Automatic annotation (TrEMBL):
This is Class F sortase. Residues 1-114 are annotated as: Disordered. The lineage of its organism: Bacteria, Bacillati, Actinomycetota, Actinomycetes, Kitasatosporales. Gene3D superfamilies: Sortase. Residues 81-106 have a biased composition (Pro residues). Keywords: Hydrolase.
Amino acid sequence: MTATLVTGVVRGCQDPPPDAPPVTVAADSPLGAKTPEAEEADEKAAGRDEPAAAGGPAGHGGSNVIDLPPLTVRSAEPAKPVAPVPPPSRTPEAAPAPRPTAPAPTPVAAHGELALPPSPARQLAIPAIMIESPVMGLGLDAKGRLTAPPVNNPRLVGWYQKGPAPGEKGTALVVGHRDTKTGPAVFLNLNALKPGDKVNIARADRRTAVFTVDKVRTYKKEEFPDAEVYGHTGRPELRLLTCGGSFDKKAGYSANVVVFAHLTDVRQV
């Protein structure tokens, strides 16, 4: 991830926030609409390395990467084997006429947790740190690392669109920059979240998945717990990820900030 020194002083994830109010990133387009930058980024987010940004720190894998470990752990529930279909009998009975069915309610997982069908994420809101941001789809680069929104649009966050959707059973992954060459970015104050804070993600199906924060952790690059962050837990969960720790001009940020949250409500828009 490309970073900048906002006040001429290197600020790490654990440092106190600046005197100015927390950064507020507000969407300036209708729900579901994409900015030109987002449309251009969607075309680039399907797994290609990006060239390093001019003046950016070395060791970050390019301007469109937040230097996360490769997704070696599946974030979705493993597919269940399909039972074999028995051959038809010699004298099959006529199939009964289909009966009309009522509209399907919101799916519920076996142990009582809410769960939603797949639907693309469109908008993210975190009231506790005053964030409202459009969401773009992301893929993986050639090394299997999750890409990130373009650095020339620091208000965007990205969702790994080949994994579970927010609210779907599995672990949905959302990433955003902490800062860029031009100043603070959308996830500057991500590490300020506390257990109990809410994260709202509006989806294309006009449902909003409401997540409750369980914990916030900062992990050194070499100690990043892939299975805990990316792995499937048996219920709909969310991970918010960005850079953190100390910053070095050659090596970049030393750590990643991870917010752990789980689905607690569903709202119809």
